Amino acid sequence: ATSFLFTEYQYVGIFMVAFAVLIFLFLGSVEGFSTKPQACTYDSTKMCKPALATAAFSTISFLLGAITSVVSGFLGMKIATYANARTTLEARKGVGKAFIVAFRSGAVMGFLLAANGLFEAITGYGLGGSSMALFGRVGGGIYTKAADVGADLVGKVERNIPEDDPRNPAVIADNVGDNVGDIAGMGSDLFGSYAESSCAALVVASISSFGINHDLTAMLYPLLVSSIGILVCLLTTLFATDFFEVKTVKEIEPALKKQLIISTILMTVGIAFVSWVGLPSSFTIFNFGVQKDVKNWQLFLCVAVGLWAGLIIGFVTEYYTSNAYSPVQDVADSCRTGAATNVIFGLALGYKSCIIPIFAIAISIFVSFSFAAMYGIAVAALGMLSTIATGLAIDAYGPISDNAGGIAEMAGMSHRIRERTDALDAAGNTTAAIGKGFAIGSAALVSLALFGAFVSRAAISSVDVLTPKVFIGLLVGAMLPYWFSAMTMKSVGSAALKMVEEVRRQFNTIPGLMEGTTKPDYATCVKISTDASIKEMIPPGALVMLTPLIVGIFFGVETLSGVLAGSLVSGVQIAISASNTGGAWDNAKKYIEAGASEHARTLGPKGSDAHKAAVIGDTVGDPLKDTSGPSLNILIKLMAVESLVFAPFFAAHGGLLFKIF
């Protein structure tokens, strides 16, 4: 895992340096590299720092953000690799002990990120964090899924050997992939959201009465909310590990769900306290050229709305992806008639699961905007992410227990232990889906807030859909998530193809491999995954990073605002449906394998026709739920934050094509 991340970071490092130079040149050239102070955007009578200073600060903070993002992903991965084996060993003593280890190590990751996000998060910082996250998520996602799909297709479907069997050459690559994609990628991604919602809030606040009067405490309100979040999550984790102990398998999922509820309730109290102490009783907020009066309780409501919307999205996601409820059981049931019906039911479930989350996001946008304009939306996004340490703990818990199962299987430990780790893992699948729900919901709010900040910084007073400039932007923007998904899905497909051929070759040519007398060549499979993901992460990354630049320079800020709105609207839908479809297929397969209910037992043991159909669904769902779905929320945020960083340049020099004609 470490060697893969280092390879990845070398490539991404080159890109970082190049992009940092770009930022400096573009932003410095706004005033022709002058060192004279210039008039401020929010108040033309006052003087602000020269463009050159802004350029230098943005460049440095961009690099800082990138480094922080790398560090948080890397540390999370280190902890996870230690935790894997420890969880397996603890499973000998029982489910409760194993749960505590897996959960605590996930929590370490959560707190790491939350604390890293508390830097002075200016826009460049968010851009750095997110661009790293994009490469981490896409590269890691391709890596883990190529190995996973390759291992499953040959091992489980063709050769009928169990999952994570040491005879399978792709098994090591598969386990490494969980750490690289699900932990390091996930970590960088949510870290990006976290840094950016702080950025969006701070950018909007800096042109409001807080910023004009230099009222520091009120300016730092977004950071106060995040800091309270860390304390609240600390308290909450104790509930899972110290106050109540998990003793049986049935208690695992409720324990993780309680985490979300407890942290949300405590956080509501925490926000009320911070809003009462940290904010003046009334203040003004910059709203498209006018200052709007806001009371402190209104701002509290904005944060609270985001917080509770996050909880709703989490629970809806759980309802659609957990095998305790009817949607997944229906999908499992459809496996009786083969893989085709399974795929149809799964897709329908994914599309249907968009409905309530979208309403939740819509309501929170309306409420927070009517109270406190764009600032309201930015703090609502922060509210949704304020319990991030808990969210990430239950998210990172999934891959850790997944690998614990893999280690148990490879070490040839008793059947009982494998059953325990599987129970931990099934709960982990659902919680990972909840984590993705959070990431997508918050990405929608964050990018809307960034969009607002972009519009105020580029000095556009209104975005009119009826003008052709904006409308073509909308259409193209809505197409981008599809183009991006096509690239990532195809990358997984082609990498998996190479992997399947290699695994088949080893089974056919290495004598004594099926009997277990000789060891397979694991290294070749790891190399296939590494090479594929490094090579394949560049085109999708370039698509996201270059689109705002090209549109801003050639078509100008109005068209760019259309592109941002379009990609936000369509990206959220695809992301929610993709990750829920994949999660549901995965858990339908686990439902049949576990055989815990009468209904599940009629669908057959492992290896029955229904089970094979379920495995095919799971394999189709893998790239959906772990590569294209979760990377889409980065696409939405990254384009918005990049446009925001370059806004002064686009406003001054953009729209070349329209100037010519």
From TrEMBL:
It is an enzyme of class 7 (translocase). It is found in: Endomembrane system. PANTHER family: K(+)-INSENSITIVE PYROPHOSPHATE-ENERGIZED PROTON PUMP (PTHR31998). The chain crosses the membrane at residues 12-30, 50-77, 98-119, 219-240, 260-277, 297-321, 342-367, 373-394, 438-460, 466-484, 537-557, 634-658. This is H(+)-exporting diphosphatase. The lineage of its organism: Eukaryota, Viridiplantae, Streptophyta, Embryophyta, Tracheophyta. Keywords: Ion transport, Magnesium, Membrane, Translocase, Transmembrane, Transmembrane helix, Transport. Its EC number is 7.1.3.1. It holds the Pfam family H_PPase. It comes from the Eukaryota. It is a multi-pass membrane protein. NCBIfam families: PRK00733.3-5, V_PPase. One of its GO terms (molecular function) is inorganic diphosphate phosphatase activity.
